Each structure stands twice: as C-alpha cells, then as structure tokens.
Amino acid sequence: MQEMLEQVREEMEELNSSRDFWEDQALDSEYLIQYLQSAVEEWKQKAVSSNDKANELQAQVFMLKEEIHSLRKEQNLEAARAATAQNKSEKLVLVCHMKKISSMLTATAPSRRRC
Hints:
The chain is mainly alpha-helical. The protein has one helix at about 1-110. The N and C termini lie far apart (about 170 Å).
C-alpha cells in the first residue's frame, strides 16, 4: 500500500512537472504569436506607407512629364516663330536689295519718251 502511494505520488509529480513544462511552452508560444502578429501589423503599415509613397511619386512623375511636354511644345513654337521672323527679315532685305537694284537700273537706262 505504501509502495502504491509512493508510486502515485511520483506519477503526480511527473504529471505536475509535465503540466508546468507544457504551460511554459504554451506561454512562450503565445508570446511568440503576439510578437509575430505585431511584426505582421508593422510590415502591413510599412507596405501601405510604401504604396502611398509610390503613388505620390507616380503622380509627381506624371506632372513632370506633362510639364516637360508643355515646355517642349512651347520651345518648338518659339523656334518656329524665330524661324518665321528670320524668313521675314531675309525677305525684307531681299526686297530692299531688289528695289535698290531696280532703281539703279532705271536710273542708268536711257530715257524713253513717249510722244
């Protein structure tokens, strides 16, 4: 009877020890789960922040492309205006030169009088 009581006591100690071990394992696992959930939330927030930043940068790129397009268009118009002004200036010089030559020719040509 004493032996059975001693054996029951030993088994109870083993069971208590086992229970304590598994409770500690459960607490450690629960802590790890909470840590991982916290890390997941932190990464989710970083992902959302990165996505927002990417969208912001894409919007800036779009606006800059539009500005570049507008500036190039304006530059092309200015170049066309400058070319047109240059052509007008060259035509004016040519016309003046032709008038001068014409007036020189008419001044040196013999007079024809009509009767």
